[in-house]
């Protein structure tokens, strides 16, 4: 039993409200990632689950038991911290054994569990080293090993990879995934990096200003963002937004002088301007005049495998199109942009998305 | 239930569930320090202020005197001459430290920051006098400057300046300056170290950038380094000011005695306080006047610190480095 | 630019570098000499007899001038063993209290949010600006009331109160830079707040504790004021006071005076030789940058 349930969880420091009532149910064995810009409350929420921050309102329930007032050590959780938080005066073995020794666990049991965790993470040869003799990746592994040794019901990760360099981050990401497959323990993971969220999560929780914006699988968030914030946050490079005018029954729009475009969303009554959204990878490049819009290329960024073309469409700032690596387009050239209807998103003035006509339709 | 290891872990876990801790530990952490500090530092200061507002009677009881003691200290001819002389002497001490000790500290720190060979040896040795007791330092210099021993005369003789020698500590005209210079000799290590640390914290890139901009060593010091260490110089100044009222007692008491010999030429607030409180020769000890002098010192320090905070520190911008 | 002009300039700047370096060494070495020569002179002459001290103060002790008569006088006349043990007891105990209580208070101020945190922090470091000596009148009355006059405990308590503000200030500043993660991790590991302090925080602050220790130690060991006022009895005299009074009695016995000064200086120099690296690293690492 290691479900985690948050019921209307709130946090305020004096007058300042940081978390505005969060409801969430995490299933046993699920890998859930909290993602959001810095200051969105994701780390605070995680620390409330851990018991490191008190809860102003609502309930945190772990394994069916309300744990609001229970000390962190007795919640059945283990936590991996951004700065690794290794005790500098203890060696790797001592760091991994620390919590169990403190709990008065039997020596043989401690030894067996530390060695098992060291096996899983490939730390066997480093057990006698001090933290300062380890590389960043090794330290992170020890921090994870220390959590494994405690055999928790829930693993909590607080931005564990942000202190690593890019190559190591990718490698550790894969290791964490494999660890989850092997242990099948519930994991809650906080990050500001949407790529980490997309690659690791069973479900992603997008947070902004202490509120949940959307919860869903990575692909649900990618294909059916419920609002403009999620649409812009998930996906890289970020989704392009164009101001648009509605005509006809309300699902047909024109933008930047284009011909009317039919967006396959459910019609809905709404006041004010709408915004059209399309991801860089979904825009088609055609001959001038043959697409929905014509535009001039400002800059072409060639990465080899792919090329990013930047356009200036006025009000919306940078408009990016992801093209083939072999694309021959040059800066200054004018091309036609075509918008496949299935790939279009429509948002009202408040940023809420129009529901798609066919929820299962994935853009491919 | 096939995994015994996990089982014991779960046992340990369900054994007891502790509550999140309340705030008691904060009190336990703070109470001892706050208690000792309050009883033996803050309370005596407040009590001294209170005592200064009372007068002692023959039978040992005290009566409310308001600001009478302060009036006596400042205007009664007997007291006022002593008080103003001591206050003036403290200002002279402060002035000599400001124009000799701190520039010397700055010079030594600036030279050390060039990372010369043996730099750490120089630094370590120059700091030696700072470690010694003021009493010891006082006696060392008393011996060295003593006409009986004649070391100073001999040393001056080796550079042909024997005629310059005077028993400086014994002459009214030079005693205070000599005492000040002894104190400078002892304490120059402190500004040197503080300024040296500040100079070290200036990032190398900034110096490199200045060099690329065409500044030479001298102008880098004046135009880049000095403005950046101004806050430290401010701290050094205020530390000099505060220290001036306390440290000077030990030195003068051990070299010149509680009367600030010769003929009160080196009498400072500290010796005046000591003499008033404990009595000396014909004078009987008076705790109320003693408390009044201590309180005056407190106000004088307070005024100095306030001026520093209000005028100096506000203008000295602290740069993020 | 022509070849000759540039090589000319290179040579000129090399020369300038050389002369600058020589100047730097002259100033530093010159002042270093001024700083240590008087100390050296006293120690040197303490090993001479009276004739040696007066006829050849700058010479090394040699045949006819070498003598330990000063030390003999000091050791038979003065009770320096008692003075040393008094100084040691007072300094070590006060130092221990300053570090222990100061670190606990600093930990509370740096780690926990509670009402009056900032106010209490300011209160505790006020003593940096106000010398405790100004309260001497009341301290003596207090010690009389507590029956602590002429006890070492009186000195220990006063020095603890005197040392706490600086210790709390430096340690709080440093503790604020400690990673919050590691303390949280210990909490998740089930340590009580007390054990977090002793087992996690104290090992992390050990280097700074050493710096604070050296800084607090010097004024305590060297103080004349409070021993004179609170504990001037023979049984409670500290080295500093002992030397001061001994010299007062033996002004004419120069070898005894020089020997007693050396006896007071040598332990301090020995300790400094041991800890100077630590001390200077502590200062320059910015622990007391204010």
What does this structure look like?
Helices cover about 25% and strands about 30% of the residues of chain A. Chain A has about 375 residues and is α+β, with helices and mostly antiparallel strands. Chain A folds into two domains: about 220 residues, Rossmann fold (3-Layer(aba) Sandwich), CATH 3.40.50; about 110 residues, Beta Barrel (OB fold (Dihydrolipoamide Acetyltransferase, E2P)). In chain A, strands 6-7-8-3-9-10 form a six-stranded mixed beta sheet, sandwiched between helices. A five-stranded antiparallel beta sheet of chain A has the order 13-12-11-14-20. Chain A starts with a strand and ends in a 17-residue tail after the last strand. Chain B has two domains: about 40 residues, no CATH class; about 240 residues, MetI-like (MetI-like fold, Orthogonal Bundle). The N terminus of chain B is likely disordered. Chain C has two domains: about 70 residues, no CATH class; about 170 residues, MetI-like fold (Orthogonal Bundle). Chain C starts with a helix and ends with a helix. Chain C is flat. Chains in contact: A-B, A-C, B-C. Chains A and C meet through β6 and α2 of A and α8 and α9 of C.
Describe the structure concisely for a colleague.
By secondary structure, chain B is mainly alpha-helical. Chain B has 14 helices and 4 strands. In chain B, helix 4 runs parallel beside helix 9 (about 175-185), helix 4 crosses helix 13 (about 270-280) and helix 10 runs antiparallel to helix 12.
């Amino acid at each position: 039993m290691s479900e985690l349930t948050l019921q209307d969880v709130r946090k305020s420091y004096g007058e300042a409200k940081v978390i505005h009532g969060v409801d969430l149910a995490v299933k046993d064995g699920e890998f859930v990632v909290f993602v959001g810009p810095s200051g969105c409350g994701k780390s605070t929420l995680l620390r409330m689950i851990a018991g490191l921050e008190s809860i102003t309102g609502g309930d945190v329930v772990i394994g069916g038991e309300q744990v609001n007032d229970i000390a962190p050590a007795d919640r059945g959780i283990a936590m991996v911290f951004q700065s690794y938080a290794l005790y500098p005066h203890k060696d790797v073995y001592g760091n991994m054994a620390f919590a169990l020794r403190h709990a008065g666990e039997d020596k043989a049991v401690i030894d067996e569990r530390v060695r098992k965790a060291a096996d899983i993470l490939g730390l066997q040869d480093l057990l006698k080293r001090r933290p300062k003799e380890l590389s960043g990746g090794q330290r992170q592994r020890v921090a994870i090993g220390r959590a494994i040794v405690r055999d928790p019901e829930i693993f909590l990760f607080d931005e564990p990879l942000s202190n690593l360099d890019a190559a190591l981050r990718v490698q550790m990401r894969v290791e964490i995934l494999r660890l989850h497959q092997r242990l099948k323990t519930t994991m809650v993971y906080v990050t500001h990096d949407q790529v980490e969220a997309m690659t690791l999560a069973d479900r992603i929780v997008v947070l902004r200003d202490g509120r949940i914006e959307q919860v869903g699988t990575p692909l649900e968030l990618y294909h059916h963002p419920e609002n403009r914030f999620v649409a812009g946050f998930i996906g890289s490079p970020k989704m392009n937004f164009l101001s648009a005018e509605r005509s006809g029954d309300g699902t047909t729009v024109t933008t930047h002088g284009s011909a009317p475009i039919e967006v396959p969303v459910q019609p809905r009554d709404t006041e004010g301007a709408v915004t059209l959204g399309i991801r860089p990878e979904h825009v088609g490049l055609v001959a001038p005049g043959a697409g929905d819009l014509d535009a001039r290329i400002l800059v072409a960024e060639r990465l080899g495998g792919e090329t990013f073309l930047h356009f200036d469409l006025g009000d919306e700032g940078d408009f990016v199109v992801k093209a083939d690596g072999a694309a021959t387009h040059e800066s200054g050239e004018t091309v036609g942009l075509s918008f496949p209807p299935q790939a279009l998103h429509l948002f009202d003035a408040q940023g809420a998305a129009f529901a798609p006509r066919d929820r299962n339709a994935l853009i491919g | 239930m096939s995994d015994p290891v996990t089982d014991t872990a779960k046992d340990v876990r369900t054994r007891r569930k502790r509550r999140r801790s309340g705030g008691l530990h904060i009190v336990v952490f703070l109470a001892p320090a706050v208690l000792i500090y309050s009883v033996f530092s803050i309370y005596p200061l407040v009590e001294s202020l209170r005592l200064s507002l009372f007068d002692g009677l023959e039978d040992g009881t005290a009566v409310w005197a308001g600001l009478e003691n302060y009036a006596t200290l400042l205007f009664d001819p007997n007291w006022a001459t002593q008080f103003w002389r001591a206050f003036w002497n403290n200002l002279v001490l402060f002035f000599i430290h400001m124009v000799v000790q701190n520039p010397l500290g700055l010079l030594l720190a600036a030279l050390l920051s060039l990372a010369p060979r043996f730099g750490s040896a120089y630094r370590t040795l120059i700091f030696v006098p700072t470690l010694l007791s003021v009493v010891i330092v006082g006696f060392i210099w008393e011996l060295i400057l003593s006409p009986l021993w004649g070391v100073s005369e001999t040393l001056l003789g080796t550079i042909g300046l024997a005629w310059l020698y005077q028993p400086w500590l014994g002459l009214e005209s030079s005693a205070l300056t000599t005492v000040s210079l002894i104190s400078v000799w002892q304490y120059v290590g402190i500004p040197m170290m503080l300024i040296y640390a500040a100079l070290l914290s200036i990032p190398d890139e900034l110096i490199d950038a200045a060099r690329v901009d065409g500044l030479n060593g001298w102008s880098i010091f004046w135009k880049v380094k000095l403005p950046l260490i101004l806050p430290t110089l401010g701290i050094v100044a205020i530390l000099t000011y505060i220290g001036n009222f306390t440290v000077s007692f030990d030195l003068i008491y051990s070299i010149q005695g509680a009367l600030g010999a010769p003929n009160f030429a080196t009498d400072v607030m500290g010796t005046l306080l000591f003499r008033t409180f404990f009595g000396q020769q014909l004078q009987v000890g008076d705790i109320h006047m003693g408390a009044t002098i201590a309180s005056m010192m407190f106000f004088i320090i307070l005024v100095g610190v306030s001026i520093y905070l209000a005028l100096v520190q506000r203008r000295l911008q602290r740069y993020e480095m | 630019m022509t070849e000759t002009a540039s090589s000319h300039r290179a040579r000129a700047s090399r020369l300038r570098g050389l002369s600058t370096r020589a100047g730097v060494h002259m100033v530093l070495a010159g002042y270093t000499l001024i700083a240590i020569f008087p100390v050296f002179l006293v120690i040197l002459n303490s090993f001479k007899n009276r004739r040696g001290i007066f006829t050849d103060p700058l010479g090394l002790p040699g045949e006819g001038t070498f003598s330990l008569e000063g030390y003999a006088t000091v050791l038979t006349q003065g009770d320096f063993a008692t003075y040393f043990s008094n100084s040691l007891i007072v300094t070590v105990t006060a130092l221990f209290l300053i570090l222990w209580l100061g670190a606990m208070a600093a930990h509370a101020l740096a780690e926990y949010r509670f009402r009056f945190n900032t106010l209490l922090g300011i209160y505790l470091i006020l003593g940096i600006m106000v010398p405790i000596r100004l309260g001497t009148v009341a301290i003596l009355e207090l010690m009389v009331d507590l029956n602590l006059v002429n006890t070492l405990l009186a000195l220990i308590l006063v020095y603890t109160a005197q040392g706490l503000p600086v210790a709390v200030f430096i340690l709080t500043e440093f503790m604020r830079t400690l990673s919050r993660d590691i303390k949280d991790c210990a909490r998740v590991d089930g340590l009580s707040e007390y054990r977090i302090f002793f087992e996690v925080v104290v090992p992390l602050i050990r280097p700074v504790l050493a710096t604070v220790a050296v800084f607090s130690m010097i004024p305590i060991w060297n103080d004349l004021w409070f021993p004179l006022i609170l504990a001037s009895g023979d049984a409670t005299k500290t080295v500093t006071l002992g030397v001061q009074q001994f010299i007062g009695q033996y002004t004419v016995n120069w070898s005894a005076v020089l020997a007693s000064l050396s006896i007071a200086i040598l332990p301090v120099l020995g300790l400094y030789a041991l800890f100077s690296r630590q001390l200077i690293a502590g200062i320059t690492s910015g622990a007391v940058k204010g």
